[in-house]
What does this fold into?
Amino acid sequence: MFTGLVEAVGRVIALEPLPAGGAQLTLEAFPMAVGESLAVNGACLTVRHAEGSCLHFDLVAETLQRTNLGELKPGDPVNLERPLTPQSRIGGHFVQGHVDTTARLIEIQRHGNGHELRLQLQEPFFMRYIAPKGSIAVDGISLTVVQVGEGWFTVWIVPHTWQKTNLSSRQVGDQLNIETDILARYVERLLQAQGRL
It folds into this structure.
C-alpha cells in the first residue's frame, strides 16, 4: 500500500525484453533489498536484483500492456515511492500500486505558478470511478480531480509537485498511469451486492 506522495524521481537505465516474454527494467533509484516493493510511476514492482542504487525488476506482459512502463527509454525520469509502514503518515490517499489503465495527456495549461492537466482515459469504462474532488493516482502521484467530462478529467498541479515529480518532463501525447480510488470500487461492489446497482 502506498500514499501517492512521490519520494524521489529515479532514472531508467535500461528496458530489455526477456526471451520468455515480459521485460527487465533497470533503474537508478535508492538502495533497496531483493524482494522489496517499490511503486514506479504508480505500478507496484518487486526488486529482483540490487547493486547499490541500481535496481532490477521483472515486468510481466500484463504490466507492459496496462501501464506506460513498456514505453520507457534510458534516461527517462520515473516517480518512486516505497510502501507505507505502520508509522507512516498518510498525506495522500490509499494507493495500491495496481494501475487500472493509462490516460493520454491532451492539454497542459499554466495558471500562475500552477498547472492544469487534461487527461483522456484509454479505457472510458474507468470514468465511473472518477468524480470531481475525488482522489486519483496519476503516474503514482495522489491528486485531486477538478473537472470530469466525457472520457476525460482534469487535475491541478501545485508547484512543489510539478518540481519534485516527473510531471514537469511530460508533454502532450504522453501516456500516464492511472489508478482510480479503491473506495469507489468498494462502494460500487457493495451496492451491487445489495441489488442497488
In short: The chain has a mean pLDDT of 95. The CA atoms of residues 148 and 180 lie 13 Å apart. The two ends are 28 Å apart (CA to CA). The chain has two domains: 8-81, 101-191.
